[in-house]
Amino acid sequence: MRKNLDDPTADIQKLVNQTIDSLRDLVPDTRTFVSDEIQDAVFDAIDAIEKDMRTLNLAIHDNPELGFKEYKAHENLTQALGKLGFTLNNPSSLPTAFVATYTHGQGGRVFGLNSEFDALPDVGHACGHNLIAVVGVAAAAGLKAALKACNIAGTIKLIGTPAEEGGGGKVILLNKGVYDDLDACGMAHPGGGYGPSPFTGSCPIDGPATLARSGFEIEFHGRGAHAGAAPWMGINALDAAVQGYAAVSMLRQQLEPTMRVHGIIQGSEKWAQNIIPSYAKVSYSTRALDVKACLDLRRKTIACFKSAAEATGCSYEISAPDQEVYADVQNNKAMALSYQAFMEKTFDDKIEMTGMTTASTDYGNVTYKCPAFAPNFAIPSPTGSGNHTAGFAESAGKPEAHRLAMKVAKGLAVIGAKFLSDDEFAKEVKKDFKRFKRGIEEGKNLS
Length: 447
Prior knowledge:
six-stranded mixed sheet; alpha/beta; elongated
């Protein structure tokens, strides 16, 4: 029987459905909900130290230091953390590493945060590690305040990790057991934003968020000779490097779109234009979707240089340390989705959960050790001034970049507080990590 279009019950049901939908919008997302007391404690603590964090930010930004030599940054960071009530120690052999710890109550889980603070040659903090450093400190301070104010049992560990830019500081610390007792971990990384567009970020969960990376160096040894009088007496190490460089360029034609090979020839400080070079060196990286593919690509790339050495009669030495293998970042879904929902609801910021950056980081290795997530956040920077450029280094020191970093620190701290205070959420986080690890064992992940 055809329904009477004038039946008033249809309008009533429509009104009921609309009411339910509107009420549903008022219910906090269970993945991200924390009490007002927790959120207020986090926000108030970070707002109270914002000026101190800006001073710390500039102290690092304006004094860029290369990996393993971040002595000023280390001193500034540890002094700030000591004043904030954290216990400092260094369980590693790296002089600029540190672990800042705070424990409240008995038992509870352990949530880790990370601060990077090394710079790049010539272009300084062109990857924004000054921002990563203060995000970690501010988030730790906000989380500490929440534990105290709301009597949450748990431990915070902020790990100061040297030499991300090619030194593999986190890999070294992982091997020393520094991450062994963490139940979960978080950090955040800045990227370029263009023009006056609103703040955006990303935290992909549909696969690797970054590429895996492996680095290596090869030294070529030949024999010097006068290039004019007796060039036939020489064995040209530069020729070996150049031939290998050209062979790698040919190799790129057969690489998958997600693969990268890049490097430089070094040794010019030992060269003279009228002497056959007896020494040359290449420094290279390979990148791919996972560690297995990355190492396979490294093997093919090294073969290019081995063949060049044989062709020119040079001997060679290869250095490919374990800490130069960076795994792809795998964001924990439960924490990443919670961060997305919190940032979008609280700050009206759009967080993309798909896509991948072709950059690499040693934090990828951490995401294989424990449940971890690493949201990216965009800072205003000139068109074309992405990471690792002088323009981005300048942008990383601007007040707006700092303001955005403090916003992200609040998000990290809230997710950390939820993990430490919410047993069901913690179970979901660990369940997602177990599912990810099981996928590796079953061959679904190649890393």
